[in-house]
Write a structure and sequence with these properties.
The protein is of the alpha+beta class. The chain folds into two domains: 138 residues, Immunoglobulins (Immunoglobulin-like), CATH 2.60.40; 93 residues, Immunoglobulin-like. It is 23% helix and 33% strand. It has three helices and 17 strands. A four-stranded mixed β-sheet has the order 2-8-7-4, with no helix packed on it. The longest helix has 25 residues. The chain starts with a helix and ends with a helix. About 7% of the residues have low confidence.
């Protein structure tokens, strides 16, 4: 094989790799753009248990593959579900879920879009109230305790004797009652979670005399433990049915590995081409017999030198 043949072969190989690489990068199906009328924001909680998702279908897309579960990086699998632009998951369980979708065109499957949605349809539970008397004043303290296993409690709304509601942060859990009427007083407390669900509880107390002041909130109360001491609640895992053809993977790396193989091969060919061009060639082309003779002569010379070293 002479020098011209090697140069032409190298250029042809590099050109073929460039064509394959350009088709690989440009042929992937587009990434879906998904919206949801029922769960529009990923980081918010919603009470709606039927989750609807919509997406546009480019003309080049021939098929769609979708799936829903509680894992953030699931591959829906190789099976095609059809060509459609919306889907509704009905009666989804409580918790954090993920919607997975990918497009297929003539070149194959594209990248996967993972869309999170959160559902909490149950109101806060175990709402308990307790009123404590102050030892150094006529003021009273309202202690509040509630639990929410899924999204968590956002705030409390407190109504004293049909007055305007007062909002109290969930972190405080206590309210200073520094004004009330003589006789029976009623306090209504509403616990509201992050999805907007709420539960209500009432408590009453009798006062021998009237106390007039401006209602205000206190930081979390007493150092002594009460019967409403906070309990730890574990959030149960909720899941959607998982099909046989779906796999839980961090990413679809097939295209990435193919690209790396092509780039490495192209680099090796370029190095080989440069080696052939710039490596000094002998003036006279040697046959394989000449190479063998040269190797034998070199070996004999080395053996003679070694023998001479041991001659006294």
């Amino acid at each position: 094989m002479n020098k011209k043949t090697i140069v032409l072969f190298t250029f042809f190989s590099l050109f073929s790799l460039f064509i394959i690489l350009s088709k690989t990068l440009s042929a992937a199906a587009p990434l879906p753009v998904v919206s949801s009328p029922t769960h529009p924001e990923e980081e918010k909680w919603y009470p709606e248990k039927n989750a609807t998702f919509r997406w546009s279908l480019p003309a080049s897309v021939t098929g769609v593959n979708i799936f829903g579960d509680t894992f953030p990086n699931t591959d829906p699998g190789p099976k095609e579900d059809g060509r459609f632009s919306s889907h509704t998951f009905k009666d989804v369980s409580e918790g954090v879920h993920y919607f997975h979708i990918k497009y297929k065109d003539d070149s194959g499957w594209g990248d996967i879009l993972h869309r999170k949605f959160q559902i909490d349809s149950q109101p806060p539970h175990s709402l308990e109230l307790e009123i404590q008397d102050q030892t150094d004043s006529d003021e009273k303290i309202l202690l509040i305790q509630a639990q929410d296993q899924t999204s968590g409690i956002l705030k409390y709304e407190i109504i004293l004797n049909d007055e305007k509601p007062i909002s109290l942060s969930y972190a405080k859990k206590s309210f200073l009652i520094d004004h009330y009427e003589k006789g029976e007083n009623t306090i209504q407390v509403k616990a509201i979670d992050l999805a907007g669900n709420s539960s209500t509880q009432k408590i009453s107390f009798n006062a021998e005399s009237e106390l007039s002041n401006i209602a205000k909130t206190l930081p979390p109360v007493p150092k002594t433990k009460t019967k409403l001491e906070e309990k730890t609640v574990r959030t149960p895992k909720a899941s959607l049915p998982h099909p046989q053809n779906a796999t839980n993977t961090t990413r679809d790396a097939t295209g990435f590995y193919l690209l790396m193989i092509i780039l490495i091969t192209a680099t090796l060919l370029v190095v080989w081409f440069l080696f052939i061009i710039f490596w000094p060639r002998p003036r006279k082309e040697m046959t394989w017999k000449d190479h063998v003779r040269t190797l034998l002569r070199t070996t004999r010379k080395k053996k003679k030198k070694k023998r001479k070293r041991f001659i006294l």
